[in-house]
From TrEMBL:
Tree of life domain: Eukaryota
Compositional bias per record (Basic and acidic residues), positions renumbered to this chain: 14-29, 141-158
Residue spans of biased composition, Acidic residues class: 1-13
Segments for region (Disordered): 1-47, 141-160
Protein name: Uncharacterized protein
Lineage: Eukaryota, Fungi, Dikarya, Ascomycota, Pezizomycotina
Compositional bias ranges of the Low complexity kind: 32-44
Length: 177
């Protein structure tokens, strides 16, 4: 390519690959846009992908050497980018899985600790309840004893009062005559 030779349309360094892509209507631009409701079979998807790969191969073969190097550089860069994105996605999933696993362990440990504390509390409450019941039973026995003693004392007082009344009655009769 001497500076004296006229440039053909394909040799124009100012002409970009994008211009060529815009001129083509091969469905290449629409590979990611398919309606969500479409139920294309796997074989038609495979045929479509094969056609795109074939078209890209034809397109690459039509490139000039400097364009081929640019294309290869872009493919390598996009490959590295996709690999990086996949690695990041995998790392993100690993982080989420690890966080979930560790969180579940923490929750399980907290539940077990709570269950142990509950059992200890329940045991202490049962012991306190038993002590309270024992004390109440002892107090009930003591009150029963006091009630019996009080009843006996009442009977004794009544007997003493009757005796006293009898003694008074005897003294009154003696004094009277």
């Amino acid at each position: 390519m001497d500076g004296d030779q006229p440039l053909e349309e394909d040799d124009d360094p100012e002409k970009t690959l994008l211009d060529r892509m815009d001129d083509r209507d091969d469905g290449f631009k629409d590979i990611t846009s398919s309606p969500a409701s479409s139920k294309a079979s796997d074989s038609s998807t495979t045929r479509h992908a094969e056609k795109i790969i074939e078209d890209v191969g034809d397109w690459r073969n039509a490139l000039k050497p400097h364009q081929t190097r640019l294309f290869d550089s872009l493919v390598i860069a996009s490959h590295k980018l996709v690999r990086h994105l996949v690695d990041r996605d995998t790392a993100d999933r690993d982080i989420v899985a690890d966080y979930r696993r560790r969180g579940e362990i923490i929750v399980t440990e907290l539940q077990q600790a709570q269950a142990r504390e509950y059992e200890q509390y329940l045991s202490r409450m049962q012991a306190w309840k038993q002590q309270a019941a024992d004390k109440l039973e002892a107090h009930a026995k003591e009150l029963g004893k006091h009630a019996k003693d009080s009843e006996r004392a009442k009977i004794e007082r009544q007997k003493a009062k009757r005796s006293w009344n009898e003694v008074q009655s005897v003294f009154s009769r003696l004094l009277e005559g």
